[in-house]
Amino acid sequence: MSNHPSSIELNGRSYTWPQQPLVVICCDGSEPEYTDRAMHDGTMPNLKRIMERGEVHVGRCVIPSFTNPNNLSIVTGQPPSVHGICGNFLFDKESGEEVLMNDPKYLRVPTIFEAFQKAGGKVAVLTAKDKLRRLLGHGLSLGDGSAVCFSSEHADKCTMEDNGITDVPAMVGMDVPDVYSAELSEFVFAAGVKLLKSMQPDLLYLSTTDYIQHKFAPGTDGANAFYAMIDRYLGEIDAAGATFVFTADHGMSAKHTVAEEPDILYLQELLDGWYGEGKTRVILPITDPYVVHHGALGSFATVYLEEGIDAGALIERLRLQDLIEVVYSREEGCRVFELPEDRVGDIIVVSRDSKVLGTAAARHDLSGLKEPLRSHGGISEQRVPVIVNRRMSEVPEGLRNFDAFFIGCNNVVLKQEAAA
Questions:
Q1: CA distance 373 to 389
Q2: Helix, strand, or coil here: 179?
Q3: Where are the alpha helices (H) located in 98-172, listed in sequence order?
Q4: Which one, of 407, 396, 408, 401, lies nearest residue 384 by Cα?
Q5: Virtual CA dihedral for 137, 378, 209, 75, nearest 10 degrees?
Q6: Chain centroid to CA 147: how far?
Q7: Closest Cα partner for 227 from 35, 13, 27?
Q8: Reported pTM
Q9: What's the CA gap between 136 and 175, in Å, rounded?
Q10: Which tens digits make up the pLDDT trace of 63-94?
Q11: Residue 212 belongs to what H/E stretch?
């Protein structure tokens, strides 16, 4: 007799308790072309075989198409207007400081992991970068064997109190990788497969890093080698009898000129030239502690205005800039992109597909960019894969990446042909 309910209610959605372990994979920066090209080029044979009885769809992520907002949307089943995490970085009006949105105090609703553990389930949450760990693991009771939450980045520092596990590198059989490496993501998969077999969690969440996607376009040798690695672990996850849903937090686009120089509009410099210094404040929500591969350059910005500046006039003026795709007032932009109004500036600016937004040239260290810039944040990076190793009873209308757990719990057909 199971000691858990048949379903749980969370943030306005109902989730049927999975009959098999459910693995949701957020492959950071993985636009659909990466897996499409890798399967076409023969570097993902397991996934190609699995898709004979599974499904491949294209969904949309939330805007801004950055890591934190989308990971939290996936694990809460709702957009940022509900869960509150609208970027990697924000201007905290109460403190008057620009801060990282890594603190769980900014999260407004519980995650599916907290809800399932409280209902008697076992959950494991693995992320490549430590910036997400506290948000994803918020509300979990660690140390009793029913929950594990850690990052590859700090896998050698795990304790039962903080992570629900110790001696992770020994369990995985890998040393802790460099934060700027493909191996940081491989560690997530390797640890996930180990825990899937030993812990047998009801829910397993694997969130990688987009180091490779920032460096290599779909179909290149570097990208295909990375997806060949993923393919090996997808084969193991499938063979273990788990249901998996593979999606992404955002896509990735080339953001450079034909001369392979970053194609940047320095928005703070532009506004300072129009209104004077100190009259506006440009916030780039892509900003995080890991700027080597993107230089804190993305395609989404929000701008706070001093009293007296006509927001409507500024919006019309910005719309005339060639590099800009859309400009919205706070109210309109938050409605269109489903963002929390109290955490967004007076206007929202999104650049075109091959362009990025910066503040001022002196504030961006681009010395770490060894390849032509690839980045994200805009509407052009909203397409993401939604790949399931089962047939689906129905596809949610307007498919989003944050439907992943709902699909895995409610929409998969478990009894499939024995020959598969």
A1: 33
A2: coil
A3: 112-118, 133-136, 160-163, 168-172
A4: 401
A5: 20
A6: 21
A7: 35
A8: 0.95
A9: 23
A10: 999 999 999 999 999 999 999 999 888 888 77
A11: helix 211-215
**Tokens 């850690």 correspond to what residue?**
150
Which residues are registered as beta bridge partners of 125? 149, 205
The one-letter amino acid at 228: A
Structure tokens at 115: 């809800």
Cβ 72 vs Cβ 36: under 8 Å: no
* CATH numbers and ranges of domains, the chain: 7-251+382-413 (3.40.720.10), 264-373 (3.30.1360.110)
Over range 350-373, report the average pLDDT. 85
Residue type, position 220, single letter: T
Alpha-helical regions (H) of 240-266: none
Token pair 């769809």: residue: 57
- 375 has which bridge partners? 253
Q: Residues 113-124: pLDDT tens digits?
A: 999 999 999 999
Widest CA span of the chain, in angstroms?
70
The tokens describing 135, both together, are: 């948000």
Contact 62, 70 (CB under 8 A): yes
Instruction: State yes or no: cis peptide before 64, omega within 30 of 0.
Output: yes
Strands (E) across 41-161 are located at: 55-60, 89-92, 97-100, 123-127, 147-151
Which parts of 280-419 are beta strand (E)?
Answer: 280-283, 300-305, 324-329, 347-351, 356-358, 374-375, 383-388, 391-392, 412-413
What one-letter code names the amino acid at 420?
Answer: A
In single-letter form, the type of residue at position 164 comes to: G
Cα–Cα distance, 163 to 176 (Å, whole number): 16
Give 265 or 369, the one with higher predicted confidence: 265
Enumerate the β-bridge partners of residue 246. Answer: 25, 387
d(CA 111, CA 95): 27
